[in-house]
Each structure stands twice: as structure tokens, then as C-alpha cells.
Amino acid sequence: MIKLAFFNLFRRKIRTFLAVLGIVIGITALITLTAVIDGIYNEMTSVFGSFQGVMVMQKGVADQPFSRLEESLGQKLTNVQGVRTVVSEIWAAPKSIDNQPLRFTSMSSFVFIYGIDPAQYKKLRGSGWIGELERGEMLGSNDKSYVLLGKNIADDRKKFVGSNIRVNEKQFKVKGILKTESELYGNIIVMDIDVARELAGISKDKVNTFYVELEDPKEDKKVAQLINFLYGSQVEAMATSDFSETVSNMLGNFNIVAFAIAAISAFVAAMGIINTILMSVMERYKEIGTLKASGWTSWSIMKLILLESAFMGLLGGLIGIFIGIAIAHYIDTYFGIPTLVTTNSVVQAALFAFFVGLFAGAYPAYRAAKLDPVEAMRGA
Fold first, then answer.
1. Which of 1, 33, 217, 320 suits 25 as a labelling partner, its CA being 20 to 30 A distant?
2. What is the tens place of the pLDDT at every residue in 113-127?
3. What share of the chain is helix, strand, coil (3-state, %, to 5)?
């Protein structure tokens, strides 16, 4: 019966193709969108999972480079209960590297400057935003003409420890290569905070943000609330765990959108499968009548039709999964947007397609099972 049901799909190839196409579109969209969402979530988790602390920036600004805070605030933050170390930070986007103007064409092409005071940074217990070094050494207090490079930018621009790199109009020597392969932090250029201020055009008494390391990382939300209570008119403090939850909730909403798109496509596809199977049943009245006359039960006829519709759904699902994986790989490779195709998402997509096909075949299978064998053999 399984073999018969499968080969019945190819009796009307064009009709079957059109019915399957709706499933293909829905599953392709589901796999692609889910891969992008899971990829971004995995990227954010890897970045924020490396430490737990509090990020302090100017209240009401969109992102770190737009924030401006008095550097003297850093000393005040060190006196807040629960705070262990405070690191002043400069965030900026360079205009050119090695005399080549930078253009943001993908996630992987976005390069940014991260300025820190090496003496402050060495007081951290964790690795902070920088992560671990793969090669070379950490910046020292007098290393004004040295930088650390993220692994991606070092690989893309063929830089190594001891090589030179020009950022805007200033020449630097590479002192270390960072281990991270994250798309978000693989293109970071770490330098002394005073030099970063100069390149970013920020006055000497200002910083963009503060990274606050805590005595007890589990108290990050409590310390963030305390900082907001003390200095809330000037700053906004956010615990990294809160930021992770915000990102998770936001991406969860995108997941709902992805399933909504797949559901709409599935509904359209189900209508196509119902129409295809009903037409097939009508064309096969005599065949169905002969099967019933030869001993096939109504349940056997139902199973045959249900198998045909389920195969349509599964076939469309498998094609959609392969196309979705290919598109996700293309997005990751050529646009630099991280994607992640999980076994769980593939299995869910395949089951979703299978059950859509099975559901769509329920009514045509019922109609076929109710046929009177005598009338069916007459072609009624």
C-alpha cells in the first residue's frame, strides 16, 4: 500500500507539483527564519555568556557610541555596594582601515574600535568584552601605538602579531589576536582609551560607557537597580542577564512571526492538497470501486488516500528543508548574519509538513471510503 500510495503521486505530475509547492514555500520560510533567529540568539548567548556584570550608559541613547558620560562618574560607581571593578569604555566605528574606506555591507564587514584603560582592564577577574587572546600579549599602560585585533578582521586582512595596521590616519602595530570568532566581536579593534578618544573625537573627560564587574555576579540585577536609583537621572544601568532576557524575548516574538508565516503557507498548501486529492479521487472512481469489490475495506481506502496526502506534505517538507538550509548558509556566508540550523528545527519542520498533508487528506479520504463499489465501478 505504501508503494502504491507513493507512485500514485506521479500520475498527475504538474498537479502534484503545484500542491507540493505551497508546503515547500512554507517550510523554506520556516527553516530560514528559524535559522537566522537561532543563529543570532546563539551569537548573543556566546557574547553575554562570557561574563556577568552591569553596563552603564547615557540615559535615552540608542547605542554605546552615542552615549556620553563624565569619566569622573566611574569613581562614583566603584563606591556602589557590590561593585568590584569599573572599566571606562570608548566605542567608535573607524572611517578607514589601511587607507580603505569602510562600508557596512554585512554583519561581518562591521568593524568597531573598543578603547579601554589597560590598567583598569587587568583588574577584572573575567575576560569582559575582549575575551581571551589566541596569540600575542595584552595591551600595557604605555602601549599607545599598539592594538589587539579580533580573529575575523585579522584573518580577513591577513594581519598577525607584529604586523602594521592603519586605523583612520593613525598607524598601529598588532600586539595580539583575540580568540573569539563571533561575528559581533570578531571585528573588534582594541586600543588605549586615550587614542580611541582621539579617533572618535571625544573630549578627554568623557567616555561612552562603563563596564561594571561585580563582587557577586548573581547580584547583577540588584546592583543595576541600585545604580539606577542613585544616578538614574543621568544614566541607565542594565544587567547583562536582563539584556539577555530582552534579546531572548525579542527573538521569541520573531519565532512566533516565523511560525505564523509557515502556518499561512501551510493553510494555502492544505487547500491545494485537498483539491488535488479530491480531483484524484474523482478520476479514480472505477479504480476505487474495483479495489473495494476485490476485498479492500473502507479503512484500507482511507489509509491509501491519507498516505498519498501525507507523502505530499512530507515531500514538500523535505524539499523545503533542503532549500531553507541552503538559503541559511548563503545568508551566513555572503551577508555575515549568523545562522544556526538545529536538528530540532529540522525534525519539527518535517513533522509539521507531514501532519499538514495528513490533515489535508482527511476529507478526500473520507469521501473515497464512502463510495459505493457498484456505483464507483460504473464511473458515477
1. 1
2. 999 999 999 888 877
3. 55, 15, 25
